[in-house]
Write a structure and sequence with these properties.
alpha+beta; Glutaredoxin; four-stranded mixed β-sheet; about 35% helix; globular; disordered N terminus; Thioredoxin-like_sf; Arsenate_reductase-like
Amino acid sequence: MASACGGTAEAGRSHVTIPGMEMWHNPSCSKCAGARQSLDAARVPYRLRAYLEQPPSAEELAEVLRRLDARPWDVCRLGERAAVERGMADWPRDEASVPRWIEAMVAAPELIQRPILLLDDGGAVVGRTPEALTDAVRRAATTD
């Protein structure tokens, strides 16, 4: 069901937009494994993007944030070493600071919360809770 994401190179990154759900995941993350199990059980087709190996561009991350209706600090893993070293917990959280947050998250993609599910309906969810996964499965079913 799942397949690796491939595509055209853009500044050293590989990504292509094709139909179906895309999951930004970390293979060693238990929440990502749980999300995969939920999607597999519901027979929802998806493809995987190992975002630590295929980091998003600033433009991609900005688009994902738009789809999530979130700000970068909403999906930033502030406990990660890269965030602590940068002092990100104390960074301003205002519109003028958004580019700085995105730049840091692109430079250190481990700061991006996971898994992120990009849905065919143009939305996205952070699939860390059963409720978020249920929502993603429901929304995937309505776009078939």
